[in-house]
Amino acid sequence: MTSQGTSEQSPVRWIRNPALDLIVGCGAWSLPLILLGYSSLSNSPTWAIAFYGLALFLNYPHYMSTLYRAYHNESDFKKYRIFTIHITGLVLLTVLLSHLRFALLPWIFTLYLTISPWHYSGQNYGLFMTFARRAGAKIEENTQQAIYCAFILSYAILFLNLHAGPSDRLFLSIGIPDKTSLIVRGVLAIAFLTFASYGLRSLVRQIGWKAMTPPLVLFSTQVLWFFVPGLLATLKGISLPQSRYSTGVLPLMHSAQYLWITSCYARREAVAEKRAWRPLAYFEIQIVGGVALFVPGPWLASYVFHYDFTASFLIFTALVNLHHFILDGAIWKLRDGRIAALLLNTQERIASVAGAAGSTAGPVWAWMRSQGIVPRAFRIATAIFLVGLAGLDQTRYAFVVHNDDLHSMQKAASLNPFDASLEMRLAKKQADTGNSDAATSAYQQAIATNLSDPAPRIAFLKYLTAHQRFAEADVIATQALAKWPNDPDLLINHGILASYFGRSAEALASWEKAIAVDPAQTYAHLYLAGQLDSEQKFEAAIPHYTIFLETAAKSGGRPDLNVVLPVLMRLADCNLRSNHPDRALKLYELGRNIAAQTHQPRIESVASVNQAMLESKSGRVSDALSLYQNALKLDRAANDPAAEAVDWQAYGVFMNEQGYPKKLAYAALVHAEALFQDVNLTASTPLKLRGELESTLGKDAAAIRKKPTPLLDQALQLASKK
Question: Among residues 159, 529, 633, 641, which is most buried (max CB within 10 A)?
Fold first, then answer.
C-alpha cells in the first residue's frame, strides 16, 4: 500500500486491538519468526510441510482478498476496469505463452522475486502512514518524502544484494560486480539512516514516543526485513538466497499482515453499507478462492497436457503474484476517499461514503451469489472439489519433501507422474541404491515431461558420464545440443565426450563456443588448455591456463588447490616447452611456495625439481642444490618411491654436470634404477652416463651398488661449492 496526502486527526490509534496490531499489523513477531525460519529447523521436511500448509490459510487467501476487493461489486469492477479486465487478460495470455515456451519462465520468476520485496515495502509504508495519521500526526511534505525515501532505500539495498550474485536456472541476476555492489550499498545505507532519522524525529517531536509506538515498530520491521540482510551481506558476507523472498517466513508475515488489514477494511465497509458482517463466510471465500488461484492450474496442465508440474506451479505462482502486485497497487490508496475514511477512522466521512460501493452485480455473478438450489449446490460442489484438490496437493507435497525417502518420493510420483524435478531426484536416489535401470527410466521420464528444459538432459548426461556410459552420453549430448546449441553446460559436456572419442577439433570448437556464449565458463578454458597441451600446442594452451588461474584467484573464495596447483605446474611446463624459461622459473617458484604453505608435498617436490633444473641452467647452482635436496626429502617423507626415483635420477645428472664427486652421482643413479624396479616402472636412467661413471669408478662401482645408502645420505647433506 502507498500513501499520499493528509488526513484528519483521529483519537482512535488502534485498528483492531493493541496486541494484534503490534504483533501482526506492525510485524513485532518478525525477529523470532525469521530466526526460527533461518535455523536448522528450516531445512527439515516438517518445517517445509508446515509452511506449505500455512499457505492455504494465509498466503493463498491474501491474494484472493485483493480480487474480492476489486471484483465483488460492479462499481469497483468498473472503476478499476483496466486492471480487472485488460491486465488480467494480459496475465492469462502470459500464463499460456509461458507454458508453451519454457524460456519465459526465468524472466517471469526473476521479475516476481525482484518485485516481491518492493510490494512488501509498499505495504509497510502505507501502514506506517496509516498508523501515524490515526495517532494524530499532521505529516508535512518533507517528512513524508524522507520516510518514503527511507523505505525505497531499504529496498534498493536488498535489490543490490539479490542481483550481485550469479544467475541460476530460474533467477537471472543482473550480475552487479561484488565490489560495485559493496560500495553502492554502503552509500545507500548512509542515505537510509539520514532520511530515516530526519523523518522519524519530525514525527516523534510532533506526537511523542508513545503515540509513535505502532509506526516505530512497523519501521523496525522494514529494517529487519530489508536493511539488515543487506547489511549482513556487506559486513559478514552472508549470502541471501533469492528464494527466501518467495517462500518461508517473510511472505507468511506479509500475508498475515495483509489479511489483517483487508479483513478490517471489509468489516468496516460492511458496517458502513449496513450489511451483516460474516467473518467466517468472508474467510471461507478467501481460502477457497486462494486455492482456486494456485492449485487447479498446475494439476490441470500436468494431467491434461502432461506438462511439468513444478514448472507450471512456478508459472502460476509468479504470475498470480505479479497480477496481485499490480492490482494491489491500484486499489489500496489512502488518497482514495473511501479507503481513507474506513482505514483512518474519520467517522464523519464513513457515513458519507456508506453507499459509495453500490453493488449492482452482473447477471452471472448475481446468479452465483443467489440462494437458489442450483447455484447453491454449484458453490458447495466447487468448494468441496477445491478443498479436496488442496488436500491432495498437500499430501503430495508432504511426500515430495522427504528427499531421503525413496518410498515417499515414489508415492508422490504416483499421485502426479508429470514432475521433472521430482523424477530427477528419484533418479538420483535410484542411482545411489544401485538401481541403474530405474534411474535411467526416471531420467527419461523427466526429459519427456519437460522437453523445453535442458536441465533433465544435463542431469542424465552427468549420470551417464559418471557411470562411464560414454557412448550413451555422447548420443544424449549431441541430441541436446541440436535443440539448445548455445547452452554452455551442454557445450562443455559435449566437448569432453568428443575429446574422449578422439574428435579433438569438435571438442575444441565446443569449448570455444561455450566461452563465447558465457565468458564465465572458466573450466572451458581449462579443458581447452588441456587439449591443446596434449597436442603439444603449448603456446596456444598458455593463455587458457592463465585465464583459468586468474579467474580462480579473483573468485573471492578460497580456490581449490587440488585443481589450481596442478594447473599452475602445467602452465609452467608449457612456458618451459615454449622457450619461456624465465616465466617457467617464476611459475615453478610460485607453485612451490604455495604448496609449501598449504602442505602439498607432492606438488612442492615436483615444483622444486623443475625449478632446480632451471636454476642450474641459469648458473644458480647453490639454489638448485638445495631445491633438489628439498624435493628428495619430501619424497622420502611422503613415502613416494616413484617420485623419489625420478628425483634421484635428476639429482644424479645434476651432480655429475656440476663436478661433484662421481661416486655420489653414481649412487644416485643406481638408487633411482632400483626404485624404478621396486614400483614396476621402466627406468629411464641415462645408460650412457651410468656406464661412463662405472668405468671411471672401476672397482668402487660394485661396492657402491652393494651399499649406496651412506653416499645417498652424504648427497642429501652436500653443501654448495664455494
Answer: 529
